[in-house]
Design brief:
Blueprint: E1 3-9, H1 13-24, E2 31-37, H2 42-52, E3 59-63, H3 71-81, E4 86-91, E5 94-96, H4 100-107, E6 112-115, E7 119-120, H5 123-126, H6 131-135, H7 142-148, H8 163-172, E8 184-187, H9 188-194, H10 206-216, E9 220-223, E10 230-232, H11 242-258
Parallel strand pairs: 1-2, 1-4, 2-3, 6-9, 7-10
Antiparallel strand pairs: 4-8, 5-10, 6-8
Amino acid sequence: MRASVIISTYNQPQWLQHVLDGFSVQTVQDFEVVIADDGSDSDTRAVIDHMRDRAPYPIVHMWHEDHGFRKCAILNKAILASSTDYLIFTDGDCIPAPWFVERHLALRERGRFLSGGYVKLPMLVCHRIAQQHILHRQVTRPSWLRRMGVPSSTSLWKLRQSSLIGRIFDAITTTRPTWNGHNASTWKDYLLQAGGFDERMVYGGEDRELGERLENAGIRGKQVRYRVGCVHLDHTRGYVTDQGLDNNNAIRAHTRQSGGTVTEHSSIHPLRN
């Protein structure tokens, strides 16, 4: 296996099923899936057990008890459980384009992390998606999405298969590459050296703080948002609080101002790796 795909999830079994189906029709299959489960109930476990019997890739299920939003902690456990040297991160509500894994592998570089893109789907369109649309590779086709009701926009270019067009758009976009939980990748040893995710972080920029530490360490972001795409399924976010956002912003500000490269608030101990 050349890569480990780490998928975060929490009590969204239908969306997770869609995502796992999306990885079953990738153009390459030499990868494993490690599910970072932030305390989901038995419905999610049932989806995973079902997919273990039919998916063309091995599945590792990392789970801890539900004690509130602890995504960063379970992601760190997933990093340690991965068995390859290259890690691709996405969320359990993001269906990958068929070339998602292939492109991450083709574009990887030492000294870099990849910053991919996504197209957010309206809730009405999300509920129109059936398994057959994923297995037939329709759900990430711009033409099919427009027929389903997704407005036409330049965002849909993130799902074009042409790598040449994607390279042009990535070169001219004004958006800077950041570490995005829905679509990012880098080498495992860089994440171990950084201590993984800061487990003090709750929802809101928790992924980007890791990217800021990588940048401080000289691991530069590489813009691939128009070459490596996925579609994001809508959902509510009842766990978001102003206090949590303020907490995260303070941690990120300290990372930027101090030039920090390692977090001490993690189950990953960089000096031991």
